[in-house]
Please model this.
Amino acid sequence: MRWFRRINLLALVLCFGVVVLGAYVRLSNAGLGCPDWPGCYGHLTVTAAQHDTAAGSNFPSRPTVEAPKAWKEMIHRYFASTLGLMLLALAGLAWTDRSRRLPRGITLALVGTVCLQGALGALTVLWNVNPVTVTGHLLVGLTTLALLWWLWLRGLAPAAADAPATPRAGGAAAPPAVRALAALALLLLALQIFLGGWTSSNYAATACPDFPACQGSLLPRTPLAQAFAVWHGTGANYEFGILDGAARATIHLLHRYGALLVSLVIGTLCACLLAAGRAPLWRRLGWALLGALALQLGIGIGIVKMRFPLWLADAHNGGAALLLLTVVALNYFAWRDADAATRTEGRA
Model:
């Protein structure tokens, strides 16, 4: 159990770093720094690729090794591979535990997500940073992060099925309204993360240089089918985007509308949590959620006002991850204690 918890924590921290680093690779236009996978120009290190004078002969679209971009891509792959080994170790510990105290299902799901993540990473390169694979890569990476966080929370506060049938959320179970809003917030946040990934992968972040309007308008400029088309024929190179300015503006504007909807739901949820009487856990979660939301909104507005600096755009991905972790924690405690309360009533 001790080693399981240690690896869980290390994997959680590393996964957060991989998500932020992956966003940096994408935002710095280094996603095709290595035109092959899993190596770089047929080598496991950029240095070896640079020393190979024929390294680019098999990649006519990128005949020259751009070391700064290639190193960014390969470092991301090194960290992602290390994370994969950690997740395999967690699964191995869980499935060889004779006491069966360690959760097997979540560790198996983690192995599945990291395998899918590797496949999407390969397709991202082979399909020339297709927005579908890039956005999917982001979503699966954050899913892995959320599962690791759920696993960590489960160790800190065991699930109702493994603990006495008494609600322990600071003295009171979550009200039904809180549980419903928490689930809705998680769903809407997942959709908003998709919109954020679609905005970034289509190079639409700079399509709206003003705020709150987009190029002086609050209405989409193109049909949604055009802005969210997933297929543009074979052989397309999606680096730097292939959509016109109007379609990119539409994508960006919808991302802003999504942020407004998520803010309204999470804001209402925060108000419910802070009004939850004397239950300390709900109040702490309410303040944490409010802080994470304010941070993410501040970063998002700051990106536009400061003319899209790279470091702040990358921080926007980190802020999304923090907000996701807070919403996941809220759902864990809300639904865990609901199950505990149900079991208590059943026994009574």
Residues 159-171, 341-348 have pLDDT under 50 and may be disordered. The first helix runs from residue 2 to 27.
